[in-house]
Amino acid sequence: MPPPPPVPPSPSEPLALTPPLAPLAPPPGGPVPSDPLRIGDAAVDTTGGWLPDGVTLSPFDVSNPILSQLDPGLLRAVQDAARAAQSQGVDIRVNSGWRSKGFQQRLFDNAVRNYGSVAAAAELVAGPDVSKHVTGQAVDIAPVEADMWLIANGRQFGLCQIYANEIWHFELATDQYGNCPPLLPNAAG
């Protein structure tokens, strides 16, 4: 026989909609991270879009969420461009693509700390509510020769450099005539 349904609280009892909040401080005697937002060698946030410094992905490595969570049209354009570039001796690699909101927030928070203000940070790192990485609509390319190749040839695939200060950042952004929009000075616009 199934258990009886739960009895609703009486009108005089407050309705608990969430579990009690855990204390913000670590337990007594517990370790306190010196820099909880640091992204370094020990980070394991690979499913959130993190890659270790110096690591890049083939545009065809769709087993990684950095690529598998990209907008399908963007992924296809990057793969098509990579094939064309390869035929000219240029190896296109991806060093960032899709990012979780939490990971993007961490990047933004680090930039605020490093550059001293929200305004300065926003020129280099978009917040999670506006970043095209969070929606899978942006990809960062490496090495520099691949960036230069895409700047010269990307519009054939719909890929455009968006920010003047980020030669590695590309989005699908061509108009109906295959032209890229004018460069924005930086991520703050």
In short:
With 189 residues, this protein is an alpha+beta fold. Helices cover 26% and strands 11% of the residues. The chain contains five helices and four strands; from the N terminus they run H-H-E-H-H-E-H-E-E.
Describe the overall structure.
The protein has a domain at 46-172: Muramoyl-pentapeptide Carboxypeptidase, domain 2, CATH 3.30.1380.10. Helices cover 26% and strands 11% of the residues. It has a four-stranded antiparallel β-sheet. With 189 residues, it is α+β, with helices and mostly antiparallel strands. It starts with 64 loop residues before the first helix and ends in a 17-residue tail after the last strand. The radius of gyration is 22 Å and the shape is globular. This is M15 family metallopeptidase. It comes from Mycolicibacterium parafortuitum.
Q: Give me the count of strands.
A: 4
Main sheet specs: 4 strands, antiparallel
Percent range of helical residues = 25-40%
Protein structure class: alpha+beta
Cα radius of gyration in angstroms = 22 Å
| Estimated share of beta-strand residues | 5-15%
What is the count of helical runs? Answer: 5
CATH architecture level-2 label of the domain at 46-172: 2-Layer Sandwich
Seen as an oligomer or otherwise, the chain set is single chain
Overall average pLDDT: 82
